[in-house]
Design a protein that fits this description.
The chain has helices at 12-24, 35-42, 61-70, 88-96, 109-165, 170-201, 204-212, 219-236, 256-272, 330-340, and strands spanning 4-8, 28-32, 49-52, 79-83, 101-104, 214-216, 240-245, 252-254, 279-286, 290-297, 344-350, 354-362. By secondary structure, it is of the alpha/beta class. Among the domains are: 4-107, Rossmann fold, CATH 3.40.50; 213-362, 2-Layer Sandwich (Heat Shock Protein 90), CATH 3.30.565. The chain is elongated.
Length: 365
């Protein structure tokens, strides 16, 4: 099947000349006179590569590239600017928008064919890698589902069977119900984690962030809500929860529910990895045009070899030593939430001494 190329150029002589060269090289070519027409063409013609002028009526090349990169189905299409404008500022602007290459119209046609072939080959390699990663992800998810979902289901059905077998005391029944409730809560967490992970993979999370983000500095209330939700878990391990929030913190652009979700995960992990009778400190400070949230525990710490993979999907810390509830996506979700906010997350740890997770978000201009 012929590879397909879309040429967006308002100079008919130029576009037909390039089309003829590409036709002879074995490509299927479609023409559009400006960005608006190109968008209409893209609804019925899925190119493997776009070659576009910059200066065009109705919609210029920069605007077209923005639209292409904004839409998930088109975002991966290689995009080459072919234009009479060769100024460094134009080249920089195109690359900032995600252009894959930038050629002036005086380029030799043989050189153009070389660039086209290179970009198509590179796109094919990336596509194959993505397919391989997707296959690996699918297999990992299936294995996780098989084990992690089966365990609490077996737990629930086992206690239900016990309850049906004979006469039990009220205390026994209360104990069985408590275990069933624990199993159902674990199932609920697993489902929520997978649904949120899918939202990140499908760009739904970014859309939700853009729709619901607000100026935010209500850290005291946010931390108190998370503490209340984790109070029982902390009490069971005799872990003290401490909040240290600086005064007069600057505003950040935030999706409050996502922030609460990320903070809940970090504090929950800190409690799990704390020693009984330990302390978890949540400290919020202003640092170099950023607001940073530090979650600090004085627990067992993380082995150095684990640190580079901390935020990988499905990676679990000390799986052999500790029974963990979940599938190892919690820190990957925290990273995704930080990146939605144009921020970053990092971790420092000393084995046997404790860990510190830091989420930093840029302040509003």
């Amino acid at each position: 099947m012929k590879e397909q190329i879309l040429i967006v150029e308002d100079d008919l002589a130029m576009s037909t000349g390039i089309r003829d060269v590409l036709d002879m090289a074995g490509y299927k070519v479609q023409l559009a006179e400006n960005g608006q027409e190109a968008l209409r063409v893209l609804t019925r013609f899925r190119p493997d590569l776009i070659i576009s002028d910059i200066m065009m009526p109705e919609m210029d090349g920069f605007e077209l590239l923005e639209e292409v990169r904004r839409r998930p189905n088109w975002a991966v299409i290689p995009f080459i600017f072919l234009t009479a404008k060769g100024q460094r500022t134009d080249i920089r602007a195109g690359k900032q928008l995600g252009a894959d290459d930038y050629l002036v119209k005086s380029v030799d046609l043989d050189d153009l064919l070389v660039v086209v072939r290179a970009k198509l080959d590179r796109a094919m390699v990336l596509k194959q890698q993505a397919l391989k990663e997707m296959e690996n992800l699918k297999n990992t998810i299936l294995n996780m589902l098989s084990h992690e979902f089966r365990t609490p289901l077996t737990y629930i059905t086992g206690y239900v069977d016990l309850m049906q077998e004979g006469n039990w005391s009220a205390d026994d029944l209360q104990k069985f119900l408590s275990r069933i409730k624990g199993g159902s809560a674990r199932l609920n967490r697993l489902v929520e984690d997978f649904l949120l992970l899918v939202r990140f993979e499908t760009d739904d999370a970014r859309q939700a962030y853009l729709m619901d983000k607000r100026p935010f500095n209500g850290w005291d209330n946010l931390i108190n809500r998370v503490f209340e939700g984790l109070r029982e878990a902390a009490t069971q391990r005799s872990v003290e929860l401490v909040a240290e929030v600086a005064s007069n913190l600057p505003l950040v652009d935030a999706h409050e529910n996502y922030l609460e979700n990320a903070l809940h995960r970090l504090i929950d992990n800190a409690i799990k990895f704390s020693r009984n009778g330990g302390q978890v400190v949540v400290r919020v400070t202003a640092e170099e045009q950023r607001v940073c949230i530090h979650v600090i525990d004085h627990g067992i710490g993380i082995p150095p070899l684990e640190l580079p993979r901390m935020f990988d999907r499905f990676h679990q810390i000390n799986r052999e030593r500790m029974e963990q509830q979940g599938v190892g996506v919690s820190l990957a979700i925290v990273k995704g939430i930080a990146e939605l906010h144009r921020g970053e997350v990092d971790c420092s740890s000393e084995e046997g001494a404790g860990s510190e997770f830091i989420v930093c978000l840029p302040i509003m201009a």
